[in-house]
Amino acid sequence: MITAIVLVKTEVARITEVAEAIVGLEGVSEVYSITGDSDLVAMVRVRRHEELAEVIPGRLNKVPGVVHTETHIAFQAYSQHDLEATFSLGLPDAD
């Protein structure tokens, strides 16, 4: 699975509308409103690199109200869920 983190700048009055449109796109798993230079961050997950072109410049960038995007490709995922699964022995918690 290939994950891309897409920072999205939108027209200010359309942030919610743009977020709802982006999260409805195939390949987009989540959209968050954020602080900073960008208005939204979209998590794009696809099976092949070629699909990134279909999702990001092909659909996401064309959503009305999107002004600019910046895409970052993830190399490795580190999450508490992944770490727990990796080190779990399948034993019940000793609470």
From TrEMBL:
It comes from the Bacteria. InterPro entries: Dimeric_a/b-barrel, Tscrpt_reg_AsnC/Lrp_C. Residues 6-76 form the Transcription regulator AsnC/Lrp ligand binding domain. This is Lrp/AsnC ligand binding domain-containing protein. It comes from Actinomadura alba.
